[in-house]
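Are you able to produce any protein sequence you like plus the matching C-alpha cells because I've never seen that pairing?
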Amino acid sequence: MQEHAESFSQLFRGSERAHGLFEIISNRNDGKKQGKAITIKTSGPTISLWEKHLCGDYGLGVIPIDDNNNCHWGCIDVDVYPLDLTELVVKIKKLKLPLVVCRSKSGGAHVFLFVSKSVTAGEMQDKLREIASGLGFGGLEIFPKQREVLAERGDIGSWLNMPYFSGATSTRYGISLDGNALTMEKFLAFAKKRTITPEELYELKVQTIEELEHGPPCLKILLKQGFPEGTRNNGLFNIAVYLKKSCPEKWESQLEEYNRKYLKPPLPAKEVLSLIQQHKKKEYNYKCSDEPIRSYCNSTKCKTCKFGVGNAYNAPVFSSLAKLNTNPPLWFMSVNDKRLELTTEQLQNQTRFQRVCMETLNVMPPKVKEEKWQNLVHHLLENGLEIIEVSKDASIQGQFGELLEAFCNDLAQASTREEMLLGKPWTNEGQTYFRLKDLIEYLQKHRFMDLKVNQIAARLQDLNAEHVFFNMKGRGVNAWSIPAFIYEEPDLPTPDMREDTSF
C-alpha cells in the first residue's frame, strides 16, 4: 500500500501546508454524500495520510494550488445527476482530449487533467473552462478554484476529494477509454500515460468552427458539434444576435444560410422568418442563462470576444469563500479571480466591502439592495465554504499568550518592585507583576496589535490575572498580577569537548 500511496502523492501534488478531510454522515435525496468537510492546516497530504485514505480510514482531500500559485493538475467537477460516465468517456475520446475520468463519491465525475511540470493556476483554470465548455459542462466548478492565494495571511486554496478511497473496493474509481473501471495500478499507469507537458497544454484546443469570427465560444462549439434536440430555435435566436453584431447589413440572409448549413434538420422557413421579424423590432442580447447556451458557456473568454457578451461594465464575480478559524476569524473571497482578505464586518457591510475592493483590487462593486447582498453572502456560506482550521498558537489568543509569557520571562527582569517603573516585569513568590502600558508597548514592539486595551484586560482576567495597586516612591502605581509562568531549561545534550573532537 505504501508504494501506491507514494505514486498517488506524486500524481496529485499540491499544497504542502494543508489538506482536506471529508467524513461521510449520510446520503441526500439527490444522491450526494452528506458529511463533515474541514480543512486541516497543520500538514499537507503526507504519505501516511494517503495510506489511510487508500485503506478507507481517512477521506483525504488535496489542494491543487500551491503557495506559488502553481499546480500540477486540475479538475472539472461534474456535479450532475444522474450522469452517464460511459457516454462522457466516449465524448472525451471523440474530442481527443487527454483527460482522465474518475467516478466521484456521489456518482458524478471528476475529470482530471495532469501536467508533467507545474503551470500557473490561472493557466490551468482557463484551459479547463475551455474544455468544460466544449464538453457541455460550462459553469461547473473548476479546480483549482483560486487563481491565487494569500499564503502569507494564512489563506489556502479549496481542496478536492481524492479517488480510490478504500482502495480496491472504492466507488471512486478511474474509467478507461473503453468505459471499464480501472484498478489502482491501471489507473496510475493510465494517468501517467495521459499526462501532458505545459507546452501541450497551451496548444490544447477544443474543436470549433472557424466561421464565427470573434463570436461567443459557446456558439462556435455548438455549430461544430450540433445543437441538442429541442434547442434549435433557441440556438438560431442566439446566432441572430451574433449576426446582427458582426454583419448588420446582411444578417437576414446569413441567418437563413446558417440555418441550412448547421441545424440538423433545418428549422422550417416559417420559424426562421418569425425569428427575423422578432429581431427587426428589438435589439436582443444572448440568452446565456438558457439552454443550449448555458451548458456550453465560457463567460470569461466570451467577455474578451469582439462580438461576445460585450465589454460593458459588469458587476464583479464573487466566489470561493474561505474562513480562517481564528478568533476573530479572517475571511478570504475571490473577486474577479483576485483574492481578497476580509474581516467579518467588511463581509457584512457593503460600504466597507467596497472600500476594501477599491484599496486592494482597484474596483468598486455597485451596491445592491440589502436583501440581495445578504442572499449573496448566505449563498457563499451555504455552498462550498472552506473552513480552515489552525493550531492554537496561530489564533490571536494563542499569539497573545505566547507574547505574554515571553514578556514575563524576559531576561530584563526587575530585581525589585520599584524597577517596575522602568518597564520591567517583577516576579515574586510565584506571581509576576507588571504595568499594563509596559505589556502593550511590548506587544506593539512585536507588531501585535490585534487586541484593544479592553480586550487585553479581559484576556488577562481569563488567565486568572488580577488588578493590584502599589505605592512606590511616593506615588500610586496600577499593575497586574498573574501566576508566574514556569520556565524549564531545555534538556540539551552536552557537547563532547575532548581534544580530538572535530569542529
